[in-house]
Amino acid sequence: MAVPQFRTSINEYLEGLPETVLTRLYQSPATCLAVFRLLPPLTQLFVMNMLFNDKPIIEDSLNAWVKSHSRAKQYEAMEKLRGIHLIKELSGMISLQKTFRMGLRSALTGGDQNHSFGVPCDTEDKHKVDVKFLDEHAHKRWEQILHFMVGTEIDERPNQGVLSLLLRSGLMEGTATSNMRITNAGFQFLLQDVNAQIWTLLLQYLNMAEDLHMNAVDVLNFLFMLGSLELGQDYSLSALSETQRMMLDDLRDYGMVYQRKSSSRRFYPTRLATTLTSDAGALLSPSASVNADINNTTNEAGFVILETNFKVYAYTNSPLQIAILNLFVHLKARFSNMVAGQITRESVRIALSNGITADQIITYLSVHAHPQMRKLNPLLPPTVVDQIKLWQLEMERMKTMPGYLYSEFKNNYEYELIAGYARELGVIIWEKKNKGMFFVTNEGNQQIVDFVNRKVLRNNS
């Protein structure tokens, strides 16, 4: 099962933090629970098997918990634990980091004494709001940001803080609000589920917070706390630090929290906040994701029909979806519940010049394909798919991929030993056996280096 994209992004950010900062983070039980929920399943298994064991265990005993054909996954799980400093290793023994162990125990057994899961208000709110109101508020705020990105005419633009974040994150480009336009990364952003979209902005917000000398630990603790709060419950500001109270102003703009006015002493988390560390809000369609949560119904299949003559019919009245289609489709007619247009060489070239790739266009059409099209095999007409790719090749003749080249082996045995291991991991991008060379991904390089140090160099010595 694929790891949700937002989890990968958060974990990469945490791995870049110093151990001292992570130790301070783990003092919050809510953060410990959130970090645990973000870990891959096998990594979670290792953590749970050590959580209530106060004594270190023999590291080799982990091999008994994993089948022999899953050694690559075991290696990745251990690297994940090392990357965010969740384990301590000494003389072949391994144990959970003490602060994290105590924090996660407190979270699971209800022993939190520091209000890390928020302080529910103990007084009645005279202006109490319900879940439906919170969902509509979150929907309005988030859709406002997405509409601005695709160039829809809207009555109220996002405030300057949101616009600065869009520019800093590379989702839009421009020198002023009037000439901001979506980028390649921005179009990819629109294809993500809502959780991934929110974390994309929040990770940039974290970087901005560091530049503004805001306490990074307070910022992260508050975000992780929001992911554990109850939807529809109002919470007091009494347990929040000064940094966290400052954050409320920004989080209101994203639709993650609701306050009747900025001076209010209570706040309500919306569904955008309470699903931060879960997969609950992860749906295929970005704009439909919040809508589906509001209606509490299963997300329907798509709305786009693509014909072999390049004509497109989209059964939608969503201004956002129509604006997205307009990025790469020449729209010719609009009805109450449908728009019609055609994919042309010119419309695709305009999209490509704006940084949108052929694969992104094809992915969008596949994700939003109408139920009638899903009966076809293949899903999209091959002639259209091939032509879109050819139009991109006209503008882009070369593709680059980062990685590492392995060559100049001592003998064929050494080459086959290392290349064979790389093949098992599935990290080889290119290989030329007769020249004794192969090229691997950035992610797979460290595993191969460890294998060489462990096997080849040891044999030579």
What does this structure look like?
It contains 20 helices and 15 strands. It is an alpha+beta fold and 461 residues long. The strands form 5 sheets. A 4-stranded antiparallel sheet has the order 9-10-12-11, with no helix packed on it. It has a 3-stranded antiparallel sheet with strand order 1-3-2. The model is unreliable at 282-300 (pLDDT under 50).
Architecture blueprint of SSEs:
Blueprint lengths: L4 H11 L3 H7 L3 H10 L2 H11 L5 E2 L12 H13 L3 E4 L2 E4 L1 H12 L21 H20 L9 H9 L3 E2 L7 E2 L1 H8 L2 H18 L4 H11 L8 E2 L5 H13 L2 E2 L7 E4 L1 H4 L11 H10 L8 E3 L4 E4 L4 H7 L4 E5 L4 E4 L2 H9 L4 H10 L14 H14 L7 E4 L5 H14 L2 E5 L4 E5 H19 L1
Number of helix segments? Answer: 20
**What strand line-up does the widest sheet have?**
9-10-12-11
Give the assembly state of these chains.
single chain
Gap between N and C termini: 41 Å
Q: How many runs of DSSP E, i.e. beta strands? A: 15
Strand % is 5-15%
Q: Structural class, judged by helices and strands?
A: alpha+beta
Biggest sheet record: 4 strands, antiparallel
Name the features.
single chain; 461 residues; alpha+beta; four-stranded antiparallel β-sheet; three-stranded antiparallel β-sheet
Question: Would you summarize the structure shown here?
Answer:
With 461 residues, the chain is an alpha+beta fold. It is 50% helix and 11% strand.
